[in-house]
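Researcher: I'm preparing a figure for a lab meeting and need a structural model of a single chain. I don't have an experimental structure, so a prediction will have to do for now. The sequence is pasted below. Please return the structure as tokens so I can convert it later.
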Amino acid sequence: MENVQQLEQRINIKFLVKLGKNGPEVHQMLQQVYGEDALKERTVFKWVQCFREGREDPKDDAKSGRPSTGSGNENIDGVHSLVLSDRRLTVRMIAEELGLGKSSVHTILTEHLEMKKVCAKIVPKLLTPEQMLQRKECCVDWKTSEESDEFLERVITADESWIYDYDI
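Model: Understood. Here is the structure written out token by token.
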């Protein structure tokens, strides 16, 4: 969608061109009114030229090419449901299934769904509070069981990585 302030400035440019102002004068006036938000000098000159040549519409022309729809809500929901149905799907397989680009699928997985690939499975990057509580309860149960006493004396854990303690 077009920025309302940019459209407003283009309308002002059209008005000033009809008053006979040149490019530098128009740019200076826009800077006085809009300050740092004023259009760049090159852009002002382009619009001054267009209006001098008879252009009447201050709105941007429609852009050619395919619209960007890769990260729409329906695509995010589609990727999410596919990943939940089979966490071993690759980005390429998901892209082919949904008819999206691989980069769009990757963006949806990493930025919108906050997932990453771990050991051939796509999993959330961060654990939910419920998952953390369940993991803590499992560890406490395991620690209190009698069979794990000797094993636990030789294991050091830190940030989901298991490192076996070896003392010479």
